[in-house]
Amino acid sequence: MNVLGISAMERDATAALIRDGRVIASAAEERFTRQRHDPNFPHYAVEFCLDAAGLKAHELDAIVFYQEPHVRFTRVLSTSLAALDPPSFVRSMKAWLGEKLWARGVISRRLDVHPDKISYVPHHLSLAAQAFASSPFEEAAVLVVGGEGEWDCAALCSGYRGGGLKLDTHEILPYPHSLGLVLSAFSELLGFQRGSVRDALDLAAYGSPRFADEIARVIQPQEDGTYRIDTSWLRMEAFLESGGSPLTPRFLEAFGPIRDARAPAVADRDALTDGEQRYADIAASLQHVLEETLLKLCRRLHDRTGARNLCVTGEVMDNPRAVARLLADSPFERVFVPADPGEGGAAIGAALLRDAESAPTTQGERRPDPYLGRAYDEARDAAMIEHLQIGSWATFRKEGCEDVEDAAITVERFEDFETLARRTAEELEAGRIVGWLQGRFESGSQGLGNRALLTDPRSEAARSRLRERVTTRALLHPSALAIAEEAAAEVLEGEAPWQWPLRWGQATARVRPEAVERVKAAVHVDGTTLPQVCAAEDNPRFHSLLTAFGERTGLAALLSETFSEANYPMVSSPADALLIFARTDLDTLVINNILVKKVSK
Amino acid sequence: MFIRKLLIRTSLPLLWRTSSRRTAAGLQRFAVAEAESAWQLLNVLDSVDEPKLRARVFQHALEEFHHSSEFDRVARPYCEALPPRPLPERDPLYDPADGEEGLAKFMAYAHVGELEVFGQFDAYAAGIGPCDAREVFKSAKKDELGHVGLTRHLFVSMSGESAVGMAVMKARFQRLYETWLRFSRGFGEIPSAILLGTIYLLSAPLLALPCRARLADSYTHANPGTRS
Questions:
Q1: Which of A70, A99, B14, B75 has the smallest CB count inside 10 Å?
Q2: Predicted TM-score of the model (pTM)
Q3: CA-based end-to-end distance of chain A
C-alpha cells in the first residue's frame, strides 16, 4: 500500500511517502524552494516522494492531510469573532475561505486524483503517530506539545504496536492553552521572529530565572499537573494570519518593551548590558517555567500509563535544554524525539496512521532513520566547477569575507571513501571550515552528518570564523558536537547506550571537566554541548570521517552545524552548497566523492 | 516604463521618509523578488547538462542571490523588528519537458525581466537619498545590465539573432498579462473584504459572546477518543 502524507498551508509544508509501513521518502518544501518554513502546497516535495517510490500520483492508494481543516476553521472563526477585531476576522476568513478550508479539493486538483482517495487525520494524532512509529519502542507514552492544531494544543497519549500501530488519547489540552503560542509571543518580546522560538530561548543560558513568578502568571500551573494559559496577557487573534503583535499593554508593562532586534547579540555573559541581561533573565525564566510545566505533564502521563518509555513531539519540543531535563528528571527510563517534531513531521505521522489502519501487520521498522530526503549525484557539478571563474565572485561575497580575486578552485576525486575521509580530516586539522554534503538530506531542521558544516572542536577561532563569515549566526547560539560513539564517554557525562536525543543533537549534555579543553569551541557558556553521538550503523560515512579525524588528533569529534546560512533552510543540492561556498569563507566543500577547495594561486 | 520611473522618483522620497517599517518592507520585497530570480535560475540549472552553460547560469544565480541577501541586510536597520518575510508560492518559468525551446523562451522572458528590473533599480537609486540601500540599488543595477546582455546572448546562441524580436515581444505580452492578473487579483480583494466586513458587522454582535464562552470552556469540550 502506498500512502502519501501532506502537511501544508500553515508552516513547514512537507510530503512523505509510506509503503507498507516503511517511510520511503520525506522532505520539506523549503528544501526545494529555498524559502525557510515554506507553507505553500508542497509541489516539489510531493514530486520527489513520488519519484523516490517510482509512482505517479494516480497510483497512490491513499493521500492524507495532517489535520481536519473544517474543525480547525471552527476554532479560527470563534477566535476572530470573540476578539471583536474586524481586520483579523477579514484577514483570516479570506485565507480560510480562499484555500485552507478546502484542503481535499486543493490536493485533488493539484495532484489530479479523485477526492475519495483523500482523507484527514486529527492534528495531534498525526504528530503522535510520527513520534511513536519512528521510535524504537514497542510501547510508549506519547506527549504532544505544539502551537495549535484544530482545537488541540497539547495531548497526552500512549502508543503500542501489538500487530500494528495503535494510539490512545488520554487527554487533550485545548486552545487557547497553547505553550507554543506563548513561546512565540515571548520570542517577539526577545527580538526574534515568532517562528524562531529555539533561537530566542538560546538567550536562557545567559540569564537567571528571576522572572519565573511573573511568567507563572501567564502559564499557570494547575494542581493536577496540567496548566492553563491566562489569555488576558495576549491578543490571541494576532496569531491568526499574522494579525499584528500579540503583546498587550499589560504584557509589555510587566516584561518591558520589545528588544530591538538590531542590537548586537553578545555571547559573553560579562559583557551584557543591564537591558540585555534583563532579556536573558526573561528567557531563562521562561525556559524554567516551560521545563517545570513539561515535567509535570510527564508525571501526569506516567501516572496514567505506567509506561517506561516516552515519545515527545510538537514544535515546543524543539528545545534541547527541556529535552535534557526530561532525560534527567522525568519518571520515564527512555525518551525519544522524532527528527522533525514540528508540523513537517505530522505528514509522516498522518501517512503512517492511515497505512496502519488498512494494513495493520506492516508496521515493524525499528531503527530511527532521519535520512529521508533527496540524494544528488555530483558528476555534473564536478564538471561545472571547472568552468567557474572564482575571480568574478569577488563582488558577490558576504561582508567581511576574504578576497578571492587571486584564488583558484581545485577539485579532487576519490574512488575510495576512506581516502576521502582521511583527506577531509587533514583539512579540518589544518583549521579549515568544511562543508559536508553526502547522500540523502535529513528530515527536520538539524544536520546530522549528511548536510553539515564542520570544524575542529579545539579551535575557537575556526568557530568564530564559521559563525561570522559563513553562517552569519550569532555566537550566542550553541554549536553541536558530533562524536563517534566509541569516544562519547570520554567527553560527555553519562554513559552508553546513548539515548536518541543525544544522538540527534536534540538534548544538551554536560561536558566532562577534563575534556573541555579538547572540545572547547563546542562547549556552551553553561558548560553543556549539543551532542550528536554517531554510531557506525547510523551513518557509516560520517562515522568514518569522525574516526579519521580521531586518528589524527586523538579524539573522534567535530564541531558540527547544520549546512545553511542564517534565515535560509538547510542546503539540499550541490548547487545550493556551492552558492554558500562562493559567497562565504567556506574553505572546502565535500560533495559525495569529490573535494572542492579554494587555494591561493 | 517612463511613467513608472517618474512615479517612483517623485513618490519614493515621501513614502520612505514617513515610515521606516514601510521602507524595510519595501526592501524586503526586493530581497524576495531577487531570491525568486535566483531560484528560477537554479531550477534551470537542474535540467542543463552542458558544463559551460551550467557555469554561466550558476554565476547568474549567485548574483541574484547576492542581491537578495544585500537587500535583506540593508532592510534590517530600518526597524527594530522586521515584518515576516513574504513566502510566495514558487511557479517555475521553465519546465524541463519543454527542452531547448523552453529554455530559449525562458531566456527571452528573463531578458525582458532584467530590463524592467534595471529600470526599476535605476529609478530607486535616483529616488532615495544617500544611504546603504542606495548603494545596493546602484551596484545591483550594474549587475542587471550584465544580465540583460547575458540572457540575450544565451537566447541568440539557442535560437538565432532573427528570433530575438518576436521572442522579446511575446515575453513582454506575457509579463503585461501577469501584471494585469496581479492587479485584478488585488482589485478583486476589495469587494470580498467589504463583503466579509459586512458579515462581521452583522454576526459579531450576536456571536461574540457565545464564541468567548466556547473558548473559555474549551477544556470541557475537549473529547479524548481512541483511534487504532
A1: B14
A2: 0.94
A3: 57
